[in-house]
């Protein structure tokens, strides 16, 4: 899941979700797939993860949520979608 998210493979993310792979699993640095997708500004992967219920508030080992790594422009776009009712997440 982490590799698919980091590479922006939203279809692979969706397939893994359908196979019940955890969307909020952590790697050794505490990163979730959403953290990695955000680091690479992979909007489609982020969207797929958020729609699958990924928790945008989970913090990595250093205390950063995925939104910290995402460009402001991309985050604003995702929040606009959320406000339209397509994605459930928040940013603090």
Structural class: mainly alpha
Number of E-type strands: 0
Whole-number count of domains: 1
Q: What's the average pLDDT?
A: 89
N/C terminus separation: 25 Å
CATH architecture classification name: Alpha Horseshoe
Q: How would the global form be characterised?
A: globular
CATH class: Mainly Alpha
Round the Cα radius of gyration to an integer and report it. 12 Å
Estimate percent helicity: 40-55%
Q: What do we call the CATH homologous superfamily?
A: Ankyrin repeat-containing domain
Q: How much strand?
A: under 5%
The major sheet is characterized as: none
Q: What's the helix count? A: 5
**Uncertain runs with pLDDT below 50, 5 residues or more?**
87-92
CATH topology: Serine Threonine Protein Phosphatase 5, Tetratricopeptide repeat
Order of helices and strands: HHHHH
Keywords: ANK repeat, Repeat
Protein name: Ankyrin repeat-containing protein
Organism: Ectocarpus siliculosus (Brown alga)
Pfam family, one: Ank_2
Give a short overview.
The chain is 46% helix and 0% strand. The protein contains 5 helices and no strands.
Characterize the structure shown.
The protein has 92 residues and is mainly alpha-helical. The chain has a single domain, classed as Serine Threonine Protein Phosphatase 5, Tetratricopeptide repeat (Alpha Horseshoe), CATH 1.25.40.20. It is built from five helices and no strands. Helix 2 (10-18) runs parallel beside helix 4 and helix 3 (33-39) packs antiparallel against helix 4. The longest helix is centred in the last third of the chain and has 12 residues, at 72-83. The chain is globular and about 30 Å long. The protein starts with a helix and ends in a 9-residue tail after the last helix. Mean pLDDT is 89; it is low at 87-92. It comes from Ectocarpus siliculosus. ANK repeats lie at residues 1-28, 29-61. Pfam families: Ank_2.
